[in-house]
Amino acid sequence: CDMQVWGQLFMLCGSIVDDVPEGKGKARQRDDETKKAAVNCLFALLRRRKIDELPTGAHTTAEARLSELRTHAQSSNFMHIVGQTLSSLLTTTDSSDLELKNSCLRTIACIVDDYLDEVLVPSVLPGIVSRMTKVALGSGTSRGWANGETAALALRPMAVAIIKSVGDEICLKAGLAHR
Length: 179
Description:
- The chain is mainly alpha-helical.
- 64% of the residues lie in helices and 4% in strands.
- Strands 1-2 form a two-stranded antiparallel sheet.
- Strand 1 and strand 2 (26-28) form a beta hairpin.
- Helix 1 packs antiparallel against helix 2 (32-46), helix 1 runs parallel beside helix 4 and helix 4 (79-92) packs antiparallel against helix 5.
- It is globular and about 45 Å long.
- The termini are far apart.
């Protein structure tokens, strides 16, 4: 789809996941089904495409399209929207709805993997590590533990964020390590 349409859909879905202030400090809570639909739409917008998923007659490759989307998402006009959406997704992982929680975790992993560059990731690393650790350990759940799928989904964005922030390549590039 057109880049402007993609951006508008991203903003719409991100605003649905976020609780909307209604004035005087109150926020309107959306139900989990509505948030789940928005998160699933975000994932559909953001996920990597396989070669066979491109429309017939497409004039671009899957990697070229991802590069276009990444460039748009990392633009100065749009990065704050990506950051706000990431923050909303991180907060929504507190949901007791397992399907919503896991959908949020998949979408967070997609954003961290493909849309955040090495310059930005260190600024969101503390929030990602904090939230993903709580989710992986099942903190705040009535059971006191997370199921295996949820724990694995929580560890992925944390691992990618750590590698992008303090991995060998980024440290070498910053002059913090030598070969």
